[in-house]
Amino acid sequence: MSQLFLFEKPLGMRDKLPHQYRMQSTIAAQLLQVIAGWGYEKVQTPALEYFETVGKLSAIPDQQLFKCIDLSGNTLVLRPDMTAPIARLVSSTMKNRSFPLRLSYHSNLYRAQQLEGGRPAEFEQVGVELIGDATASGDSEIIVLFQQAIEEIRLERYQLVLGHIGFLQAMLKEYIPETQDAENIQRQLFEKNDVGFRESVSACNLPTHIEERLLQLIDLRGNEQMLDQADALVTSEEGKQAIQELRHIWKVIKEEGFEDVVQFDLSTVLHMSYYTGFVFEAYHEDGAQPIGGGGRYDELLAQFGRSAPATGFGVRVDLLSEVCGEFAQNEESWCFVYHQSRRKEAFEKAYKLRQEGYSVILQDEAGLTDNWKKDQSQMAYRYFEKEEGK
Q1: pTM of the model
Q2: In 145, 218, 362, 367, which residue has its Cα 20 to 30 A from 90's Cα atom?
Q3: Is the C-alpha dihedral spanning 191, 194, 196, 198 positive or negative?
Q4: pLDDT tens, 314-350?
Q5: Cβ–Cβ < 8 Å for 211, 185
Q6: How far are the Cα atoms of 104, 234, 280 from residue 266, in angstroms, in the given order?
Q7: CB within 8 A of 118, min separation 6: which ones?
Q8: In what order do the strands lie in the sheet with 67-69?
Q9: Which pLDDT score, from 0 to 100, does residue 272 have?
């Protein structure tokens, strides 16, 4: 191992500068305000969880977990997501609370990155979990709440992509006799590898008409009309039910008036085995990664001993701050530069401005430098200079 420099940080870890901290705090506060308005109660779980419970049941691959050993020899993980910790919480400390439960969080999450990844290994996420509601109305609530939260921060040029794992699995079950072949195909979709998907379908040596129907899967992208095409590709009750659920969600989206930013993609796979129903991701034109996403996961809580359907979403605050750009940087702030003889007057004036919501720096003129003033050029200045004769 090479000698580390004093200023180096672990791979993927980043400092957060004042303007970044301010912007992310503002975004998170606005998101949480909307979420609280929908009746979601905020919770917090420990940064460290047991690997044998939360670590193994998390949606995050094992190679992305930060692990350590406690004094008793137990393997711990830094929480890689919040859904599994909240499932643990609901099944233990909150086991006597009735369903449906509406919970929210604002937490730092930790995921180890590959050397070539270039992505943060620690990031802020705001999210919600609606637990104990199996209805499509619950899924509709999640997508509408996500949209309203995004609207609150005035984000533009983004799109929501909806899919349904139940439909995908029903279709694969109908057409693919071998489980391993179906998993290979699903993995290609999870990796968004259209070429690999076609190769995996071809490798199944299916009858031509079946292969052609399967290949249509990656063309099931578009608006409401695409659902009719998808409906014609499945005969099972599970497949038909999945389409009905998406129609219900679409109806709510249209009634709420944001269908222009939504499209379907029934080849969407967010995880190999975690989600069970409707799923979605949100993308911004200026970002390579999804700024948020979520969906239904009806089988997770049963693994903690309290079976319940659940749905939810998470929003990446760090990624939102990168694409939101300007709105959080317009706070008006003041700097009062004072001579010691007028310190009390300056302090009293600053107090009044702070009571009105302004940020005020109090700076003794003896400690002021020209370089500092250049760095703080966006501030409004007021000078309390030495009075003549004092």
Answers
A1: 0.88
A2: 145
A3: positive
A4: 999 999 998 886 554 446 789 999 999 999 999 999 9
A5: no
A6: 28, 13, 10
A7: none
A8: 48-50, 75-78, 67-69
A9: 55
